[in-house]
Amino acid sequence: FYHMDLYGSKDRFDIFPEELSGRGDRSLGDMRRESALSSKKVQRPQEVGYDLEKEVAELAKMYGLDEDREKEIEFLGGHLEKVESRRPPAHTEKAGSQGSIYNTSKSSSSVEDPSQSTKQQGLPDEASQGENQSKGRADDEAESNIWSKGGLSSGGMSDEWNSQAVSEEEEEEEEEAADVFCSTCKIPIRAFDKLFGEHKDHEVAQLPSALESEKEEIHKNMCKLEEQIAQMENVASHLEEIFITVEENFGRQEQNFEVHYNDAVQVLAQKYEEQLEALGEEKRQKLEALYEQLVSCGKHLDTCKELTDETQELFLENDKAEFMKVKSFNYIIFSPYNYRLEEFLRKEVDLELSTLPDFEERVIDISEVEQLMNSINAIPAPCAPVINPQAPSAATGTSLRVCWGLFSDDTVECYQLCYKPVSNERHSDEQAEHTLKVKETYCTITDLLPNTQYEFWVSALNASGISPPSERAVYVTAPSPPTIKTKKIRSCENAALVCWESRDLNPVDSYTVELSKLTDEENDDIITESIVGIPNCEVLIHLQPTQKYRVCVRAQNLGGSSERSEPVLIHTTGTCFYLNEDTAHPLLAILDDGFTISCDELENPECDLPVYDNSFTRCIAILGSLIPFPGKHYWEVEVEEDTEYRTGVAFENTPRHGHLGANNSSWCMRHIITPSRHKYEFLHSGMTPDIRITIPPRRIGILLDYENCRLSFFNADLAQHLHTFKSHFQHYVHPCFALETPGILRIHTGITTPPWTAL
Amino acid sequence: MALKQVSSNKCFEGFQKVFEHDSAELKCKMKFGIYLPPKAETGKCPVLYWLSGLTCTEQNFITKAGFQQAAAEHGLIVVAPDTSPRGCNIEGEDESWDFGTGAGFYVDATEDPWKTNYRMYSYIKDELPKLINANFPTDPERMSIFGHSMGGHGALILALKNPGKYKSVSAFAPICNPIQCQWGKKALGGYLGPDASKWEAYDATQLVKSYSGSRLDILIDQGKDDQFLSAGQLLPDNFIAACTERKIPVVFRLQQAGYDHSYFFIASFINDHIKHHAKYLNA
User: Fold this and answer.
1) What general EC class does the enzyme of this chain belong to (chain B) (predicted)?
2) Quick one: closest CA in B to A681, which residue?
3) Could you name the CATH architecture of B4-282?
4) Does B254 touch chain A (CB under 8 A)?
5) Which of A347, A559, A753, B247 has the maximum number of C-beta atoms within 10 A of its C-beta?
6) Which of A51-60, A368-377, A512-521, A593-602 has the weakest average pLDDT?
7) Structural domain boundaries in chain B
8) CB nearest B240 (choices: A692, A718, A756)
9) ipTM metric
């Protein structure tokens, strides 16, 4: 079978039935007979040499054959002689051809001798070979077809082959003086034939040109053959590998068989011993019982005989009286004989066999053996696989890619992957275990919970069974993308404070903030900065003024990084803060825009409004949440002319029960309306300078300048400076707003600090 | 219009100088103080005119107010002229401290014998700026004015009578409503005649009522313990009321108890005023 693969086509194989011993020879079979390998060439002269030595004896032997046979050989020999005569001795084709002939002869055995004679007789004819060379070559091709046919119909068909050869021989005799080539018939012909013979209508060519084209053809074929040699060599080396693999596999299977059969034999031997023992025991018991019965039987017999003798004795007593006396009642009663007889007769003889001769039916249990036998052909159950620890980037928020491997080269049909969420709670049993069958040594499990630990273990399965489970490996899914609290973003010209919340229950390791500076150009998405390893849910980012930034957050855990959060846009045109609702007095309302505060009434009749821990209780006020960043912050407050208000800044912990500006933790401008005029106070610790302002500001600009230790108020519409507090703020302050009469205050943030605030 | 340097002292990297010149308007020799900030050595600077109060010469402000540092910082040329013509030998000019010499009141007199020389309004408005612009590296487009007491009155009326001429105006304890106070009545009556209606042209409170033009941002500081405030010479409330009504932006700061009418008071708040003017002059 091995060879079949190599040769593919059957005819070549059949032609060289005896050359299959070595690889060098095998490759020969690949060749067409027009050419031959050098190995063959080498082989041939050796054979010839050998043949010549024996030539005389062989010739004699040849002549010793019967008439028909001789004639056949003669024909064949003649034909071969002619073939030989048309070829130069060194011509490769000749060697190949001869080799073929030789081999075929050998296989058919009947043409062996003629081939010898051909060689012998062919040598003197060399002189005439030159001129006939081309013709011979054409012939040769024609012949080779015949040889092939001969080969196809197997080596044994020499008769048919001979007859063909004979007819060809006759044909060839006519063509001896050929000088042109008939393209139609593919044979050299005499020019005369072209004019008058059967080739009259055929296309002819001059012999030299025909020769050239044939040579080219041959060269092409040579190339093809060389290619095939290379190909075959590859195949052969591949086969060698397969050969080794087969050896290994079969070796292993042999071992496997040995182990299993040994097991089975042992089990059988054990069974045999057990059964034999049980059988012996039963036999002994039965024999014992039978012996006992036999003994008692013997005793009975003795008694019986004794009584018979006594009875006989009695019977022989002639004295009737004596007899009767004996038979008398008293006698009967008191005679020991009578008593014994009575007794004996009364006693039933137990003729039942105490035990059955046949043995108990025993079920020979060979199921174990059967099982063993069955398992012989099967492969052993695999060993436990080894589950890999979690690889980086193996996790997304909802999926995990789990990998495992086998230590041994067990045959595995599939794996059984189990997992469940890791839980510290006692009801962990309630957590469903999931089982999957997987063909590969990896699996991507989807639909998982984000930022959750899962335990994985895997078993290997094949027809023989299931392996023990692997160790349990804990994998963790990536977190969910955090949610940026868009309403809680604080920023200024040089920084932003972004905070977010995790969407996962379990804590994550850290967060990464990604920052892209947006330009008018297209490549907006280029991340200009990443801040990694943020432990909390907020970060202060330093930015450049008057830019637009897109900010995203990712959560990070051992499993990897979450998707990006929804991005937020931050403009560093000016300071942006938000109102801290927790601090709002119950009567103070924030409208939907988030920056308009209103107060409808100063007193609530019900007085049971909810008051939060952090809210102002006396002053109807609210604090903003300003970014804790040094530098300048500017915002504006739009007021109605008749609204009384306080606005300014305060420490975060400014007393909630007092009025803004009445303590040393707040600084604010106050507007009150007196009967005569609008009164403006600039309050800190309850003190105010006496300042008269002729135009009530409608839009108050507030500049907080930490660097220059000042808090300035402006009439923003007029760019009019109203007042400046000079203070080294010990802590960061927050904007504050309070209404003292019903009305509204509109707060404007994100405003570029106007240049006129500079002085 | 030849300038004669009287003195020159380096001050905060600039120079505080005093010049003397012959005034065509006043027909006498006039002195003025000028502070040239370091910036003036390399470029043109805005000019801030200071008008002093009664009895003052060009010396009071430049020696007492301590404005030079702020002026140097903001690159302002500060010009401090005298308060009246001097040495004109007009009869009665030295009789009282609140009329005549040292009390020009920044008006152009119409009455004899004052009308020839006492033309302080025109001097401040036209001649002095022309002189300054011709001799110093100034930006003629950028000028402001401020003053103290009578000078505060002068600054206010100059600003109010010449909308757009001055970028800003401020005053320390100005005489806001001279037609209503003793000082004003005496001076205006003396220079302009008994017809009180003529006085109104030099009364800030009256001028505000008819002011229209480019926006002014007026800063006024007033000491709470200013004896002339309580004496009813200054009357800022009238001016504020008029400004409130006319929507003229004023920030009037009544400074803490203890501040009086002196240059100590001025020195305390001079920086705020320099900043106030610098904000508009350097905008």
Assistant:
1) hydrolase
2) B253
3) 3-Layer(aba) Sandwich (3.40)
4) yes
5) A559
6) A51-60
7) 4-282
8) A692
9) 0.92
